[in-house]
Specification:
Order of helices and strands: HHHHHHHHHHHH
Low-confidence stretches: 21-36
Distance between the termini: 8 Å
Number of helices: 12
Largest sheet: none
Helix content: over 70%
Radius of gyration: 21 Å
Shape: globular
Number of strands: 0
Strand content: under 5%
Structural class: mainly alpha
C-alpha cells in the first residue's frame, strides 16, 4: 500500500542517518584511542566494539515494549526530536502536507534510534521488525500494561501536534473514521476524475528515470502523497476537520483507528 511504502522510505532514510552517525562516531573514537596511552584491559574491553554481532531480537517482552515506548516519548518531549518539531512550528508558512511529512520523519527517526538501541538493525527492515514486535507485545499485555502503552502512544502524538503545530488532538469515533476512509478510497480509485487527470499529469512531468532508482521512487511517492493529501483535504470538512489545522488533527485521529478492519481495508485500497 502507499501508506506502507511511505513508512518504508522514511525508515530507510532514518536508518541511513543512524548508520552514518555510528560510522562517524566510530571513526572518531578509533582515532582518539590510537593517540592515547594504552588503557587497562578491563577498560579496553568495555570501550572496544564487540567482534561478533549479536543476533536481532526475536520478540519484545511487555517490559521492553513499555521501555521503548517511554524512551520514544522522552526523545520527542525532551530530546532533539522535540527541537526538530519546534523548527517545523517556526515554518508555518510552508504547505501543511510538507510540514506533516517532516513531522513523521522526525518521529520515525526517534523510533529508529530506540530500535537500534534494543538490538534491531539500523535498516528499514530492522525498524519494521521492531514495530511488529511492539504490536505483538501490546496484544499480549494485560489490561493495565496495555493501557500504559496506549497512554505513551497518545502522549507521543499529543507532543507531535503541540510542538510541531500548536494544536491539541481531536479524537474521531470509529463510525466516522470508517466512513471517511471509504470516501477517500473511492475518490482514489476514480482514475477518470480530476484526481486521476492531475496525478497522471504530475507523474508525466517527472524527469526520466536515471541511475538513481531510489530518488525516482521518492519523487513518484511524493506526487502520490500530494494527490492523496488533496483528496483528504477536500473531504475533511465533511467530518469537521477543515483547513490546515483540521488536516493535521485528522491524520492523528485516523491513526487511532488504523487497526479497525474497515479502515485498514479502505486505506490499503487507496
Amino acid at each position: 500500500s502507499k501508506g506502507a511504502s511511505t513508512i518504508v522510505i522514511m525508515l530507510r532514510s532514518a536508518a541511513l542517518r543512524i548508520h552514518q552517525f555510528h560510522q562517524c562516531g566510530g571513526a572518531r573514537a578509533s582515532l582518539r584511542l590510537a593517540t592515547r596511552p594504552r588503557a587497562p584491559l578491563l577498560l579496553r574491553s568495555l570501550s572496544s566494539p564487540v567482534d561478533a554481532p549479536l543476533p536481532p531480537p526475536a520478540d519484545l517482552s511487555v517490559e521492553q515494549a513499555l521501555s521503548t515506548s517511554r524512551i520514544v516519548l522522552d526523545f520527542v518531549r525532551l530530546g532533539v526530536s522535540g527541537r526538530r518539531l519546534d523548527v517545523i512550528a517556526n515554518h508555518a508558512s510552508q504547505p501543511v502536507q510538507e510540514r506533516w511529512t517532516t513531522a513523521m520523519q522526525v518521529l520515525v527517526a526517534a523510533q529508529a534510534h530506540v530500535a537500534a538501541a534494543f538490538g534491531y538493525a539500523a535498516t528499514a527492515e530492522g525498524v519494521m521488525a521492531y514495530r511488529q514486535h511492539l504490536a505483538v507485545a501490546a496484544r499480549g499485555a494485560g489490561p493495565e500494561k496495555l493501557e500504559e502503552l496506549k497512554t505513551y502512544d497518545r502522549e507521543v502524538w499529543s507532543e507531535v501536534l503541540m510542538r510541531g503545530f500548536a494544536l491539541a488532538p481531536r479524537p474521531m469515533d470509529a463510525a466516522t473514521a470508517r466512513s471517511f476512509a471509504g470516501k477517500v478510497a473511492a475518490a482514489a480509485s476514480d482514475a477518470t476524475g480530476a484526481l486521476g487527470d492531475s496525478l497522471t499529469a504530475d507523474l508525466a512531468a517527472l524527469p526520466a528515470g536515471g541511475d538513481d532508482d531510489q530518488a525516482r521512487a521518492q519523487a513518484v511517492l511524493g506526487v502520490v502523497q500530494r494527490a492523496m493529501a488533496t483528496v483528504q483535504t477536500e473531504l475533511a470538512s465533511d467530518v469537521g476537520y477543515a483547513g490546515d489545522d483540521g488536516y493535521v488533527q485528522l491524520q492523528v485521529a485516523l491513526i487511532d483507528h488504523m487497526a479497525d478492519p474497515a479502515v485498514m481495508h479502505a486505506t490499503q485500497a487507496a
